Every structure is written in C-alpha cells, then in structure tokens.
Amino acid sequence: MRSGLIRKDLLPLYAAEHMPRTFVVSSMEDVNQIIHFMEEEDKCSANDLWVLKLSDSSNAFGVHFFHRTDVASVAPILGDGYVHHTSTSNTMPRFHLHVHLVCRRQTRVVQKYVQSTLLDGKKFHLRVLVLAVGHLDVYVYDRCRVLVASAPFSVEALDNSLVHITNMGINQARNAQYDAAAQNRLLSDVFPAHIVANVMDQVHRISRHMFRAVGSNRRHFFSVSNCFELFGVDFMVRYDCKGLSTACLPCCG
Known about the structure:
- By secondary structure, this protein is of the alpha+beta class.
- The protein has two domains: 21-81 and 94-113, Dna Ligase, domain 1, CATH 3.30.1490; 115-252, no CATH class.
- It has nine helices and twelve strands.
- A hairpin with an 8-residue loop joins strand 4 and strand 5.
C-alpha cells in the first residue's frame, strides 16, 4: 500500500517543503476558508493562478485551472462535497425494488500553479523513474525525460489543456501533430551539464526525503520485503532569483 505517495491529499504530509502551496478541500466552504492564505501566497508569486485536482486521480483527469479572483468557478465542480452512488436491490420481497444512495466525501487539492521555465515557449515537466525495493532501498534512474506541452504558454488560455497539461498521454491523445522527438526528450539533451547536475542533485535529495518520511508511517506506505515497485515522479523546473534551476514536486504515482 502506497497511498501516502500517490494520493495528492496525503503527499503534502510527507513532502510539503518540496511542493507548491497545497490545500485539501472537499467543499466550497473549505475553499472560502483558504482564500486569505491564497492571497498571501500570491503576493510572492508572478501570477494568481491555481489548480484544482482530484486527490486520487491520474493522467490529468479532473484538473481545473483558475485565477484566484475567479475562485467561484470551482463551485460547480465541488458541488456539495459528496459523491453520490445509486445502487438497486431486488433481493427484498417480490415486486419491491429498493434504491440505496451511497454517499462518500470526495477530497480534492487546491494547489498553487507552478509556472515552469519554458522550453521553446512551452511548459514542461520532468518524469523521473524511482524504484522502491523492500524495506526500503530507493533508486533514482538518472536518465529522466522532459515532457513538453503541445501549445505555447499563456496565462489567459486556462481552458486549453494543450497549453497547461504536460502529461504525455493527454498530449498524444489531443494533439494530432504530437511530436515525440520534440515533446519527449532526455534531460541531458535539453539542458547543459551543469544544469542537469544541479537538477538531479535536487531530485535525489527530494526523493530521499520523501521516501524516508512516508516510510515511517506504515498506514500510508506499507513496504514488503522481497517486493519492488516502480514510481513515476513528476518534477517542475524553474529558475530562482540567483539564476539557478530549482525542482519542486507536484505529484507522483
């Protein structure tokens, strides 16, 4: 069991210092309670962009980008905060059909949008393969990939997934002109050696810290001896005020 790593509402418990500001919400009431913190975060940011994500989804399913000033746009998505499942049963006495409504709380995360360094004017992220073995050896594969969005970056095109989503599957499915040679490249083919070394040092450090932290809670990460699991960990890269590239961890799975 590795929910502490693949659930977006649990990952901040173990890697918050390496992630953009993240809040767990399940209703519009929750969102209203964090607006002040969002405003404070935006004072140190170049934009007021945020993203709403399902806690237990992958492949960019259910992702919604929005400006903080347009936070009301998340209300129709959140609804009443519950997922309603309808099931029927005909095991009761003849001619009686019973309908059962099953409700469960659905959590999402509101996360600060990370505006990465652009590559040829387009957003990108790093996909790093991390192998976890037994109790608990962790290996990072250094030949990581640079996955590039299909359309040029713009803060005004929030409804265009080809601008903001760098997931390879989404771009392959929605872009008939998807170019694997340009949009799925080795990090070492994109940046000079000193940048690659800097980024990978941070990737190793963040991965080490994350697995050590989550490995201490067997309720959220239950490792098993003589078993292994391969994780795909996503990192964003951006330049800081000193001109050095820094990596942060939006999610993994």
